[in-house]
């Protein structure tokens, strides 16, 4: 969701990163990234619940005893999987000790410390010896791997027969702003998205993973796109203040990542939106929404 958790891959134009909701790379702003991932988890909790339930229905829940969260980030997927598969032990693998510490803290406060463990490792390097697992979860992380083919092969080798490899990717940056934010020229978000699309390593470049999974020996069990649309104030949306904080942290990352590429007017408009207070600031708006989509591929060994 993301991995959720996965959103930061879209905004870290100056360094490689991977949402879900998940990171296995070093970041200059781990605190801000962790906050963004956690807000992403809060806002998209309904989507994540639907996704994990769907994955559970595809597999054989009673046989899922060990799960690997590959590029686990702050543990959004780790915690969700531990709740969904109540008899399973979940191993969170990430390169960042900062993120793994966060996961261990969450596991403790969630009463899941006995069913969650962590491994500090780089998923792009040869994997450390692990007990065969029944499900591998890679949310917004596989496209970040310099050698995704090797990672997929490692996943196939690490799964028990019949085990599932779940790959989640964000299809585009999230939509958050109204067309006219009340200051500057209308269409700010459209212009930001155009710049993101033209950025090297913008975080949205990923193949359709079905064919690579099949070439590695997986049966492509299912592919599904989950659409997310949460206008502030709607029945299933979080409180507008939560969406406002989410938009602010996300657009702060965008503002830094696009430094020098935004027009003077758009940079000034973003600064007004990102202010701590004011008529147009994100923290006080009630007209924001979170919309986007995730595509999921499920391969079975």
State the helicity in percent bands: 25-40%
Q: Strand order, biggest sheet?
A: 4-3-2-5-6-8-7
* Secondary-structure class: alpha/beta
* Biggest beta-sheet profile: 7 strands, mixed
What does the average pLDDT come to? 85
End-to-end Cα distance: 22 Å
Shape estimate: globular
- Work out the helix count: 9
Concise summary:
The protein contains nine helices and eight strands. With 301 residues, it is an alpha/beta fold.
Description:
- With 301 residues, this protein is α/β, with parallel strands linked by helices.
- Helices cover 35% and strands 21% of the residues.
- It has nine helices and eight strands.
- It has helices spanning 30-43, 45-58, 76-84, 97-109, 148-158, 188-197, 210-215, 240-257, 264-273; strands at 4-5, 66-70, 89-94, 116-120, 133-139, 159-170, 219-231, 289-300.
- Strands 4-3-2-5-6-8-7 form a seven-stranded mixed beta sheet.
- The chain is globular and about 55 Å long.
- The two termini are 22 Å apart.
- The model is unreliable at 1-31 and 200-204 (pLDDT under 50).
Question: Secondary-structure blueprint of this entry?
Answer:
Elements: E1 4-5, H1 30-43, H2 45-58, E2 66-70, H3 76-84, E3 89-94, H4 97-109, E4 116-120, E5 133-139, H5 148-158, E6 159-170, H6 188-197, H7 210-215, E7 219-231, H8 240-257, H9 264-273, E8 289-300
Helix pairs in contact: 1-8, 2-3
